[in-house]
Amino acid sequence: MASHSDTLVVFFGATAGANGGKLGSDERELILLVWQIVDLHENKVGQLQRTLVQPDSADLSEQCKEETGLTAEELCKAEPLESVLQQFHQSVSAELKSLGRSSYTLCVDGPLLIRQVLHPEASKKNLVLPECFYTFVDLKKEFHKCCPNAGPVNDLTLTSMLDYVCIPAAVEQEAGLREVKNTVLLILHLLVEPYNHKFSTFETVNYKFESGACSKTEAVDSETVIRARGLPWQSSDQDIARFFKGLNIAKGGVALCLNAQGRRNGEALVRFINSEHRDMALDRHKHHMGNRYIEVYKATGEEFLKIAGGTSNEVAQFLSKENQVIIRMRGLPFTATPQDVLGFLGPDCPVTDGMEGLLFVKYPDGRPTGDAFVLFACEEYAQNALKKHKQILGKRYIELFRSTAAEVQQVLNRYMSTPLISTLPPPPPMVSMPVLATPPFITTGSTRDCIRLRGLPYIAAIEDILEFMGEHTIDIRPHGVHMVFNQQGRPSGDAFIQMKSADRAFMVAQKCHKKMMKDRYVEVFQCSTEEMSFVLMGGTLNRSGLSPPPCKLPCLSPPTYAAFSATPAMLPAEAALYQPPLLATPRTPQAPAHNPAPALAYYSPQLYMNMNMSYTTYYPSPPVSPSTVSYFAAPPGSVAAAVAAQQAPSILPPQPGALVRMQGLPYNAGVKDILSFFQGYQYAPEDYSSLVGVSDQGRSLIQPKEWLCL
User: What pairs with residue 524 in β-bridges?
Assistant: First the structure.
């Protein structure tokens, strides 16, 4: 069999739109093909062939009419592209047989005809091109090898090349024939002295796109990357490769972009083998994929690596199996096992290597996300799997989509890099208020000496949590259990526990994670005091991280209240006070004048300190579980009585008073009603007028000067 260099077929084509250097940029169809065989071994030429091609739309541009001289009436009588390609293949094969040759290579004046016109049009019309259209010789590059001083390859034209070697151009009136004859003259001139050129460099067109993994350490040239925008959300990497058919995409070079919810956003980054193919891809700006036009822009290698790059060995091992079809499953039950997934897919779509062909996506702490990727050995199995879209597994319907290696990397990167609690913003400055306090219990910090319990039964109490902790209760700080309640005052199923050290917190998180409590497994995670305080202030946790508490939302502004001055207050030893949920920075307490009695903390969900915050806070924890930055501590009556029996009575030193804010007052409530509400607490009768103020929202403020518990 003769080598490819023994026979060339000079190939020329024209479209119904732009031609020359803009060939294929306007997505117009082929209307003319011309070819001629050149025997490189014998320096002979075959018969010149010319045929018209019937386009789907006979609307010709003015440039096309001027350059080709064709009319719509002529094209309507022509054969469609599929028939013309069959005619071409039969004609060339018969002529080669007469010359004693069996194979040939196309020769074109630049790659645009093959890469930008023929392959894209055949792909849109679902035509299977003969093998000869996947290999060709670029005459411009071959001429540049012989005559490097003729100028850059991109600037060469057929006319300039003929002028450089001093060959007169052929005189031919009919379009297409003229270009082919001039190309044949140039080829024959390069075959003889002084060039004696051998056509040995062959351009290739990839048959199909190869998926693969990309490492973040891989060097990616920014001159090879584009961003495609406006893609159908269900499009896969193969669909994108089909849109760029004729251009060679690097292995694993299609990265579908995902939005914040992990769903495709209609964009993709595509990496080509070189800048030449990237430039041709940019010429497909606003070409169509189905009924949608696709925008194509330049991108950078850094952007590509951010989306497609990965470092996970598990993903690399999963994607090491080549020529596999990847399907993404979304919405899996969190309890789903590999056996459940294999049973759901069934025997008509076997997974490659069984459970080895499954990759479950998990959070950094090991919790399932409900996503998984599955490998199939062939397209048939993948199609069978896609037919199960929205079928039921357990009590959930499962979504199935085509996926890509880059999407596997991106999804894993997104979930594995998501922290349990996102980085917290610096707290805003708080207004300092005088309060009654013992040494502050919760101090903000980044040390991960706390644990978070999630999934607690709603009926769980402090005693249940202590029983759940078991032997680790000895490592809990005093009053270190903090249950989180929602805005309705109901348990949220979450709790925070302060441990004596970060090592103890880590050990508890490891040993108690997913341990059972009242027929429910409870998840246990290590966290910091700063993160705990932020949640206890009203922030919420979700999959996207941490949402700020209402007090940090810019849409809320504090109301303006009448100003009152604080006055000294006395706190008797037997007083049982309720702690308002004061959300502020820790305060330095005043040193007591005696040994304080054992204290327990108490809270009231009805009293609010005026901290210039206008929002509905979360209810605090039960009495033994302070949830705020500082808290009131006072012994209950029984404890105080026991202490008083052992110690001499003493009076606490004067403490500064506090401004109490009352919300939800009846509109007709007066001073007497408010004083009646505080019956049992002592204040100066002469200061009635200064005790009560009304805000501009109609709410009352009262400042008790002394507190006594009856």
Answer: 453
**Buried (b) or exposed (e) across 90-101, using 16+ Cβ within 10 A?**
ebbeebbeebeb
Taking the C-alpha atoms of residue 26 and residue 24, their distance in angstroms, rounded to an integer, is: 6
Distance CA 244, CA 270 (A): 10
**Are the C-beta atoms of residues 275 and 223 closer than 8 Å to each other?**
yes
Q: Could you tell me where the beta strands, DSSP code E, fall in 458-586?
A: 476-485, 491-499, 515-517, 520-527, 540-542, 545-547, 568-569
Q: How many CB atoms lie within 10 A of CB 556?
A: 11
Q: How many Cα atoms sit within 13 Å of 158 on the Cβ side?
A: 21
Give the C-alpha separation, 336 to 355, whole Å. Answer: 13
Closest by Cα among 54, 196, 204, 227 to 137: 204
Q: 458 and 491 in contact (C-beta within 8 Å)?
A: yes
CA-wise closest residue to 561 among 607, 614, 604: 614
The total number of residues shown for the chain amounts to: 710
Any alpha helices (H) in 481-537, and if so which ranges?
Answer: 502-512, 529-536
Is cis: bond before 194, omega within 30 of 0?
Answer: yes
Global model pTM greater than 0.70: no
- Between the alpha carbon of residue 34 and those of residues 246, 423, 575, the distances in Å are 20, 65, 104
Instruction: Report how far residue 256's alpha carbon sits from residue 264's, in angstroms, rounded to the nearest whole number.
Output: 7
Nearest Cα residue to 636 out of 598, 691, 672 = 598
Residues 6+ apart with CB under 8 A from 50: 32, 33, 34, 174, 176, 177
93-132 per-position pLDDT tens digit: 999 888 888 889 999 999 999 999 999 999 999 999 999 9
For residues 637 and 709, what is the distance between their CA atoms, to the nearest angstrom?
10
Secondary structure of 578-636 in HEC code, one letter for each residue: CECCCCCCCCCCCCCCCCCCCCCECECCCEEECCCCCCCCCCCCCCCCCCCCCCCECCC
The sign of the CA dihedral 483, 485, 489, 493 is: negative
- The closest alpha carbon to 534, from 544, 549, 556, belongs to 549
Taking the C-alpha atoms of residue 678 and residue 672, their distance in angstroms, rounded to an integer, is 10
What's at 548, amino acid-wise? P
The predicted structure's pLDDT at residue 456: 92
Pick out the chain residues at pLDDT < 50.
1-3, 420-425, 427, 430-441, 543-545, 551-656, 687-691, 694-710
Token pair in block for residue 159: 């006319």
In 125-157, which ranges are continuous DSSP H helix?
139-146
Q: Can you give the pLDDT at residue 684?
A: 52
Percent of the chain with pLDDT over 90: 41
Query: pLDDT tens digit string along 402-425?
Result: 888 878 887 887 777 655 444 444
Six-digit token string for 69: 């001289």
**Which single residue is written with the structure tokens 């009926």?**
459
- The neighbour count for residue 586, using CB atoms within 10 Å, is 15
Query: In this structure, are residues 176 and 236 in contact, taking their beta carbons and an 8 Å threshold?
Result: no
Q: Residue 681, exposed/middle/buried by CB under 10 A (0-12, 13-18, 19+)?
A: middle
Cα torsion at 16, 17, 19, 24 (round to 10°)? -100
User: Residue 506, Cβ neighbours under 10 Å: how many?
Assistant: 15
Of all helices (H) and strands (E), which one includes residue 188?
helix 177-191
What's the Rg (C-alpha) of the chain? 39
SS3 93: helix
- Residue in 268, 114, 290 with CA at minimum distance from that of residue 206: 114
- 273 is written with which tokens? 């083998």
The C-alpha angle 333, 335, 339, rounded to 5 degrees, equals 95
**Which H/E stretch holds residue 135?**
strand 135-138
Q: Which tokens in the block code for residue 539?
A: 């922030």
User: Cα dist. 180→99, 184, 602 in Å?
Assistant: 20, 6, 96
Rounded CA-CA distance 614/558 in Å is 5
Provide the angle, in degrees to the nearest 10, between the axes of the packed helices 462-469 and 502-512: 90
Mention every residue, 6+ apart, whose C-beta is less than 8 A from residue 272.
224, 225, 226, 247, 248, 249, 250, 253, 278, 281
